[in-house]
Amino acid sequence: MKILAIESSCDETAAAVIEDGRKILSSVINTQVAEHGLYGGVVPEIASRRHTENIVGVVEKALADADMTLDDVDHIAVTAAPGLIGALLVGVNFAKGLSLATGKKLVPVHHLKGHIAANYLAHPELKPPFLCLVVSGGHSHIVEVSDYTKFRILGKTRDDAAGEAFDKAARAMGLPYPGGVHLDRVSKEGNPKAFSLPKPRVEGSPLDMSFSGLKTAVVNILHNAQQRGEEINIPDLCASYQDVICHALVDRVMLAAKEGGYKTVVAAGGVSANSGLRALLERECKRRHLELFVPPLELCGDNAAMIGSQAYYEALAEHFADLSLNARPTMPIDEDFE
Ligand code: KG4
Ligand code: ZN
């Protein structure tokens, strides 16, 4: 089964052709990161406009790179939730147009389920059930994946997502957008024990997390130093901050793995590119004899290949949509499109 997949939930316009959920025939990503970088974050209206301008070229290139035309594709898949609504609508409407014009079935895909499926593209041996840490710019979840289309949230953040926490602190420290990548880079020159920062725990809910207090602590450290005219060692602050976030995430995954008796741990989403997180997951999984899968760096961020992978399993489960499909800015990962 060959699926043409489209992704436009944030600041990447992407299209891919995927065979049987596991093989990338083509994958095209047009990123707007440089333009949003001028403003220090994604400007939703600019994102929608750029998607509108770029989507035709990106889809045409994905088909051409796969040496195919629309006739060779079985289904059309698209990210329909969650994300920036104006951005999502561009992809959803474009996919609906293609479906109407070709008579091919439409497969709506949940963006975070796509992030998880990025691992199927890189690891042919990976199959559910497994425990997954999903960490992106907008979400931090610990999820049980009992089957390709069955998800259960075991823990989540009560406020900021891990990626958001990285980006906001990075911005306060004067690092360029997108902050997570730069904070990761600068951390490598710092001492992770230099600053003592609050632990992002939620009383009574051991698998949930809260990152907003941690972010505020960093902002306060910076403000206080500025008022006193003191210099802050930014690499040390980055390393300490990253260390607390990574431990908070990995501690919870290990606890969930122990409680649920899982043998396999998977990481997904933009933040799974973080070098500290990958190293800590590796160390802790090895210690407990847990099998660990992380996406290769090129599949951690937003792309359409991962959407095409998840779409294959949604199509096998007959999870199709008709032309009344709408985009949704929020949608829990344990819900299906009706
Ligand atoms: O999954 P993603 O590409 O988009 C969303 O679905 O949100 O995730 C983007 C997030 C951003 O917050 C970005 O700063 C973060 O992932 N990120 C990182 C790293 N690379 C990307 N955070 C920490 N370390 C990294 N190396
Ligand atoms: Zn994403």
Structure explained in plain terms:
This protein is α/β, with parallel strands linked by helices and about 350 residues long. Helix content is about 45%, strand content about 20%. The strands form two sheets. It has a five-stranded mixed β-sheet, sandwiched between helices. A five-stranded mixed β-sheet has the order 8-7-6-9-10, sandwiched between helices. The mean pLDDT is about 95. It binds 5'-O-[(R)-(carboxyoxy)(hydroxy)phosphoryl]adenosine and zinc ion.
Provide a quick synopsis of the model.
The protein has helices at residues 33-37, 44-65, 85-102, 111-122, 162-172, 179-187, 212-228, 234-260, 275-287, 305-316; strands at 2-7, 12-19, 23-31, 75-81, 105-110, 130-135, 140-147, 150-156, 264-268, 291-293.
Ligand inventory reads: 5'-O-[(R)-(carboxyoxy)(hydroxy)phosphoryl]adenosine, zinc ion
Structural class: alpha/beta
CATH architecture of the largest domain: 2-Layer Sandwich
The H-level CATH homologous superfamily of the largest domain, spelled out, is ATPase, nucleotide binding domain
Distance between the termini: 23 Å
Portion in beta strands:
15-25%
Number of helices: 10
Number of domain units: 2
